[in-house]
Amino acid sequence: MIELPEASLVASQMNKALKGKVIVGVQLKNCDKLSRMGSVNVAPDVFEARSKGKSVDSVASRGKWIFVKLRPDMNLVPGEIIGRVLFHRPEDTTPDKFHLKLRFTDGSHLMVNSAR
User: Fold this and answer.
1) How would DSSP label each residue in 24-40?
2) Looking at the domain 4-114, which fold is it?
3) Strand pairing of 74-76 and 82-88?
4) Beta-carbon-side half-sphere exposure of residue 29 (alpha carbons within 13 Å)
5) What sign does the dihedral 88-45-51-3 (CA atoms) show?
6) Residues 32, 67, 10, CA angle at the centre, nearest 5°?
7) For residue range 17-71, what is the model confidence (pLDDT) as tens digits?
8) Which of 17, 33, 49, 68 has its CA 20 to 30 A from that of 40?
9) Are 18 and 110 contacting, i.e. CB atoms less than 8 angstroms apart?
10) What's residue 11's pLDDT?
11) With 80 as the cut, is the pLDDT of residue 8 above it?
């Protein structure tokens, strides 16, 4: 579970790395347990369809929560499920294990893997 100081630091780093990036690919994996716990609130195919083409407007923290505002009308809130949030440059190799993988137009990726 992420704590207040880490949430602020991670949100600031994510904002610097992600602001303005456009999502061109979305993958959700191994989300059955997270769905049952209420951490994932839409079906993976619905989330994928809604996310593609959105751009990252900003990333901010409020308490221990991190909000990724996607333009024009969507928020991604990793919240309690955060285990690791990793940003990968286009030339980086990405791990096979993750729950959420966002691919951006420049070839970079954001990956979220639950601690649960």
Assistant:
1) EEEEE-S-HHHHHHTS-
2) N-terminal domain of MutM-like DNA repair proteins (3.20.190)
3) unpaired
4) 11
5) negative
6) 95
7) 999 999 999 998 877 766 666 667 778 888 889 999 999 999 999 988 889 999 9
8) 17
9) yes
10) 92
11) yes
Helical (H) or strand (E) element with 65: strand 65-71
Q: Tokens for 102, please give them.
A: 């966002």
The Cα–Cα gap between 40 and 53 comes to 20
The residue among 101 and 115 whose pLDDT is bigger is 101
Token pair, residue 64, equals 């221990």
Nearest CA among 58, 61, 57 for reference residue 10: 61
Residue 82 has pLDDT above 60, yes or no: no
47 and 75 in contact (C-beta within 8 Å)?
no
Average pLDDT of the chain, as a whole number = 86
